[in-house]
Amino acid sequence: MSFDDSRSQQLFAAISEAHVALRPQVAVTALTHSAALSAMTGCEVYLKCEHLQHTGSFKFRGASNKIRLLPAEQRERGVITASSGNHGQALALAGRMLGVPVTVYTAATASPVKLDAIRAQGAEVVTLATDPLSVELEAARQAKLQGKPFVSPYNDAQVIAGQGTIGMELHEQAEHLDAVFVAVGGGGMISGIGTVLKRLSPATQIIGCWPAVAPTLQKSLEAGAIIDMQEGDTLSDGTAGGVEPDSITFPLCQQLLDRTVLVSEVQIREAMRDVAATERWIIEGAAGVAVAAMKKLAPAYQGKRVAVVICGRNITLEKFLGALA
């Protein structure tokens, strides 16, 4: 798939349409220059404040776009999804705003604060004692049995189009960016951002960032096919888990990513601490992954303008303080 073929054009058109249609329900988040992180790294660092998006993460963009585009009869039946927390919370709010019942399947290891937030938005939560990828597959199976749409956190073009509105905002907010650092789980956010920037700012490098202990999609890209692998425990629970075997994000990431980088749990903790100390923000582990990756690759971008997507803030105070200890 080249960037000028029909699939790429269709996705870019869908992102452009969503960029207008989702307002004002989806907020335009700030792109903030960080003087402290710039001095620390030698780069000109800009932070895309998705932790200030509704529900505390970028996921509200894709969820809102998907719910918006559902036919009336599907809205009435309700939707099913699988989520470690942020996507479920976002879909729950988007569903509540438009009167669409939402059921969220999740793994027993999901963050309790995120599950409580999902329930607070009126969604039903079904917890399964299995791994995140198995939860996704079971949720999709249940959706088919019940005749309801399954809303994948990433394997859905309409969800990706919603996430891609971040790329539209980045292009509008920055005259030029040499690189954008994005934490990656299933690849929906980086696929959307990359689709936009490769068309509107082709010189901008798209950098995919993973925890070293949980890099399923990154290892799949290296292998040339989606693989299943055992992941370790990570602070970046928002990016943890496997990838659906037919995920449309895989070929997108193959085409769009200029570079991938893995960071350790120690580096993630240090990045979260740096942001707390310099910006006075609480950020979750997935956001720490992107900051850590930027710090790791900073020698290659001295004096250059880089953006880091601060993708979410949904972390318990206890877990956050533990990360800083």
UniProtKB/TrEMBL annotation:
<keyword id="KW-0456">Lyase</keyword>
<protein>
    <recommendedName>
        <fullName>Tryptophan synthase beta chain-like PALP domain-containing protein</fullName>
    </recommendedName>
</protein>
<dbReference type="Pfam" id="PF00291">
    <property type="entry name" value="PALP"/>
</dbReference>
<feature type="domain" description="Tryptophan synthase beta chain-like PALP">
    <location>
        <begin position="24"/>
        <end position="312"/>
    </location>
</feature>
<keyword id="KW-0663">Pyridoxal phosphate</keyword>
<dbReference type="InterPro" id="IPR050147">
    <property type="entry name" value="Ser/Thr_Dehydratase"/>
</dbReference>
<dbReference type="InterPro" id="IPR001926">
    <property type="entry name" value="TrpB-like_PALP"/>
</dbReference>
<dbReference type="InterPro" id="IPR036052">
    <property type="entry name" value="TrpB-like_PALP_sf"/>
</dbReference>
<dbReference type="InterPro" id="IPR000634">
    <property type="entry name" value="Ser/Thr_deHydtase_PyrdxlP-BS"/>
</dbReference>
